[in-house]
């Protein structure tokens, strides 16, 4: 399994609710820079948080990759989601390559859990940072971190 984890691009500081914050123009550019790293190795699935800034980021990636399938919105990729639950949910996608479009602190905590087997070694993830992990199965402590790209 190849797993990419993309933190959404820079978002507005204020909105009616946190879930409604939209990408800024620089945030859109950041996402497109990160999406370029997926050219030639597109995922089979793009799973995305229901929050607006993540949805907008995922849509930019979908367009940049000319990804024909629909985005899959899942409730377990929000900022405060439990990384252990994310790995459990990814088990059903273990035979595929997957892109997650999500938030901090979840993105960093998920990488730490997948690679190191604990939540104490979270990976720093800037806006639109893209991490690439691989393993046979998405198990705690069993994945290899192949790299993290930070735009800019």
Topology:
Layout: E1 2-7, H1 25-36, E2 45-48, H2 52-65, E3 72-73, H3 83-90, E4 98-102, H4 106-116, E5 130-134, E6 144-149
Parallel strand pairs: 1-4, 2-3, 2-4
Antiparallel strand pairs: 1-5, 5-6
Helix pairs in contact: 1-2, 3-4
Strand order of the largest sheet: 3-2-4-1-5-6
Number of DSSP strand runs: 6
CATH homologous superfamily placement: Phosphoglycerate mutase-like
Question: What is the CATH architecture annotation?
Answer: 3-Layer(aba) Sandwich
Radius of gyration, in Å, reads: 14 Å
- The total count of helices amounts to 4
- Low-confidence runs (pLDDT<50, min 5 residues)? none
Q: How many structural domains can be distinguished in the coordinates?
A: 1
Output the helix-strand order: EHEHEHEHEE
Distance between the termini: 28 Å
Q: What percent of residues are in strands?
A: 15-25%
Fold-level CATH name: Rossmann fold
CATH class: Alpha Beta
Shape field: globular
Write out key terms for the chains shown.
single chain; 6 strands; Rossmann fold; alpha/beta; 6-stranded mixed beta sheet; 152 residues
How would you describe this structure to a colleague?
The chain is an alpha/beta fold. About 30% of the residues lie in helices and about 20% in strands. The chain contains four helices and six strands. The chain has helices spanning about 25-35, 50-65, 85-90, 105-115; strands at about 1-5, 45-50, 70-75, 100, 130-135, 145-150.
């Amino acid at each position: 399994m190849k797993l990419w984890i993309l933190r959404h691009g820079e978002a507005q500081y204020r909105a009616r609710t946190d879930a409604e914050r939209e990408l800024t123009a620089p945030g859109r550019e950041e996402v497109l820079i990160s999406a370029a790293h997926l050219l030639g190795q597109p995922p089979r699935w793009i799973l995305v948080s229901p929050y607006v800034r993540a949805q907008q980021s995922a849509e930019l990636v979908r367009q940049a990759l000319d990804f024909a399938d629909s985005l899959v919105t899942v409730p377990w990729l929000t900022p405060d989601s439990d990384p252990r639950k994310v790995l459990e949910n990814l088990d059903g996608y273990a035979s595929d390559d997957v892109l997650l479009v999500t938030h901090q602190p979840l993105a960093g905590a998920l990488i730490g859990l997948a690679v190191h087997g604990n939540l104490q070694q979270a990976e720093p993830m800037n806006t639109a940072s893209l991490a690439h992990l691989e393993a046979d199965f998405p198990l705690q402590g069993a994945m290899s971190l192949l790299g993290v790209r930070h735009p800019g």
